[in-house]
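Structure in, sequence out. Go:
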């Protein structure tokens, strides 16, 4: 039996990291797809060689992919972004599946993945939580957090799914247009609701 899997995704700058941290504090087992992607593009020689062959040596520095530099190239180019995902996704999905296979079936796993839907990971999830926020707030947060220009931030947004998609394809929506404390409170409430559903399911299975 597989563990109960919750997918966490949403818009850039919406506050997904804070939500993930809250779920972790409440006992969810976290699998961070973005960290896995970073590890693969820093240490998996086969993947790095494929990226070098496709995008050029200028994006590989000291044997490691320069993610920000390549991001500038692909975020407003759908064809190149799709190619990047086609190269990296098999490695990422393989690692995620490997980690899930080692987790006890009585645990609740949270897969934190900015491209949950695009990668097909949503199909592995029992429930999905999406974090959204006002675009101008998100722009300000991204520019401040990543120290990038407004133009770079806009490019990043242009490659992402629209708000209505998240609303239509998620079991829970967490809106983050207020304070951090409000976001944490809403995330904790969502986590509690998911736990209640999970334990109700476990009880019914034993009846």
């Amino acid at each position: 039996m597989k563990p109960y899997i919750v997918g966490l995704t949403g818009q850039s700058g919406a506050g997904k990291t804070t939500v993930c941290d809250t779920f972790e504090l409440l006992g969810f087992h976290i699998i961070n797809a973005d960290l896995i992607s970073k590890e693969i593009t820093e240490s998996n020689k086969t993947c790095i060689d494929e990226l070098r062959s496709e995008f050029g040596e200028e994006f590989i520095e000291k044997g490691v992919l320069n993610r920000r530099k390549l991001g500038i190239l692909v975020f407003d180019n759908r064809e190149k972004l799709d190619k990047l995902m086609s190269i990296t996704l098999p490695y990422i999905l393989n690692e995620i599946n490997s980690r899930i296979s080692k987790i006890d079936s009585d645990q609740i796993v949270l897969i934190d993945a900015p491209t949950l839907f695009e990668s097909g990971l949503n199909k592995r999830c029992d429930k999905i939580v999406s974090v959204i926020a006002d675009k101008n707030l998100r722009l300000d947060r991204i520019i401040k957090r990543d120290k990038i220009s407004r133009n770079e931030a806009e490019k990043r947004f242009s490659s992402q799914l629209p708000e209505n998609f998240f609303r239509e394809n998620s079991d829970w929506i967490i809106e983050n247009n207020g304070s951090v404390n409000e976001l944490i409170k809403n995330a904790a409430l969502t986590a509690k609701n998911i736990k209640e559903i999970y334990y109700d399911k476990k009880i019914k299975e034993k009846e």
